Structure formats: structure tokens, C-alpha cells
Amino acid sequence: MIYDFDRVIPRQNTNSLKFDCAIRRKRPADILPLWVADMDFQAPKEVIDALAAKAEHGIFGYSEPDEEYFAALNHWFQTRHGWEVHPEQVTITPGVVFALSTFIRVLCKPGDAVMIQEPVYYPFRRCILDNHRKVVVNELLFDGETYQINWPDFERQIIEHQVKVLLLCSPHNPVGRVWTREELTRLGETCLRHGVFVVADEIHQDFIYPGCRHTVFPTLADDFAKISAVCTAPSKTFNLAALHTANIIIADRNIRDAFRRELDRVGYSQPNIMGLVACQAACRYGAPWLEQLNEYLTGNLNLFREFLAIRLPELKLIEPEGTYLTWVDCSKLGMRGSELDDFITYQAKLWLDDGNMFGKSGNGFQRFNIACPRSRLQQALNQLETAIRDRQH
What are phi and psi of 221, to 5 degrees? Predict the structure, then answer.
């Protein structure tokens, strides 16, 4: 099947956070949204058909994943990432952020230190603070072109603050880095040496651009598997966020048991049946759809890059290695913080994610979601160019 990602599917009046909440969130009603990380594409036909068949059955009682579910999950990770996932290691949660908060409560006490690498996905910081733990920031080093881990600071902060947990964003949102095997090995060795547990958010692992390769963290060494957990979900890969199904893989039995006891304490048990159905169908049949989608996203990235280079040289694309999110340095516009965000919102009429929300080092940046039909992306770029030129005159 050939998928038409150019097709514009109206999302207004569908209870869409992305399209229907502008006024509620104090944005203009006619704003063009390229912010929250869901896509403007339909899920694979096989997923839609599987959901329709379950809806036709009409009984939505308590449900549990079965052998076919775990076989489909393992098939996906083995064929895409060379990783064998054992059913007993999988725990299903309503989402990755839910799992992050759960890990923080399980792995450390109030007041203990949890490390993040900013600028980073903003719920990381929120999860730590909301659970009364201390945020320790190993700020990524930016050389004007790309981001690297600040290695001396990484180990120094772990020792100084007695860090118990690292929340690892891999691939990294929003800066788009796909960490190399060498980087992840060095990170893992440091964490192993100092007793730091690594919670790896790998939700963007299926969006990797040509020339890069994602490495699942625990596959690097058996010792790394013992001190880590991997958070995955079909929500990003197949645009299924509202079905609230994440697969959390924990190799260490004691940590896994503690994690499940914490789920019992918060009252979560059986997962969403529609999420199970969708995830199973996607893992079994969704590869051709994803391959076509990644080709399309590469085309969108090419358009984005060329437009900025030719028509908006004031803006600098930080070349992404993964994710469908682009991180753009807008500092040459001479605006930062709320001034920049207001300009983007009220002059360009674009709803983006302001860099400040990802940490103080994100000031002057904007995050664009390019997982949309190309005509919509082109419209957004045209609006941005018009607003910038009007401001200059």
C-alpha cells in the first residue's frame, strides 16, 4: 500500500489538544499549530482495521496482553533494533511520563538527586519536582552546530550531588541528537561506577535520519541492562498518543517488582484494550507504513533546511539526527524569551514550543513539529518569513 502523507485531514472539532485548544491556552483562534509532538497523519490501515474490529465486537471489559501481544512487541524490537524483549520484563503503563514519575518514586527518596541533560523534554524536570526530588542539570554543550555531553561536569555532578537516577532522553528531544554507541557506553560506564540507575526514554527511537543509528541502551552490556530501564510506546511511532499504552522494559527483577508494587499503590492495573489492540497491530504490520513515513519526513526536513538557508538565513537549524522535531536557533532575530514567543505567536501566527520550556539554555530557540503534510509546513514557513520581513521594514 502507498500512503498519502500529503493528504490534509481536518483535525478541528475532534477534541484535539493540538488544534482545538488555542483559545483555552491563550493563543489566537487562527493560529497554525506545529507544537505538541503528535502527527497530522492517520495511523496505518491495519491499526485502524484492528480497532474497528474490536469496536464492532462491542465488549470492552478488563483486558490483559496475551502471548500474541508480546510476540508482536518482540518482533518489532528484534527486527528494528536487534533487541530481544522477554514478556516477563514488560510492564504496561498509561504513558512514558507516567512511568518516569513512577521510577523516581521507586528508585530514590524525597530530596535525592535526579539528573537531566538540558535543554530537554520539559516533563523530565516537572516529574522530579512534583515528586519532591532534587533536579541536577548536566547541561549539554552547544558549539553552534550540535550538542555534546559535558563529560567532566557529568561525573562531577554525579559525585557531588550523589545522583541516584539519570533520566536519559535517547534520541534526544528537542536537540535531535542520536547518541552514538561510544557516547552511551561512556555514559553507562560512569553510571555503573557510581551506582546511578538509568531510565532511558527511547520513545523517538523509530525516527532516525539517514546516516545515524539508534542504540537501545541495555543492549550495550549485560551490566548496563541491570542498571537501566527502557521506556517505549507506540504513541510517537504510530501516532497513538491518546490510546495511553506504553511498554516499559525492566531487566532487573527486583526493580521490576518494586515498579509494579508502585503501580498497585496508585491504583493502576489493566491497560486500555484499544491501546493493546493498536500496539499489537502496529508492531506486527506497521513497518511498511513507518518506512514510507520516514521517507516523507526526510523530505519535510529537506524543505525546512533549504527554506531557512535560502529565505531565512537569520534562523539556524540545528541539524537533527532523529525525531520529527526540529530545534531552531532564533537568536539573530534579536529577541528572546517572551518577546520571541509573542512574535512567533501573534505576528507569524504559529504555535510552536518556546525553547525556554526545555531549560534556560533553550532561551532564543524554538521547536517545530514537522510531522505534517508538506503544504502545511510550507504555509508555516511562509508565514514565518512574512512576519520576519514585516518586522525588518
Answer: -165, 145
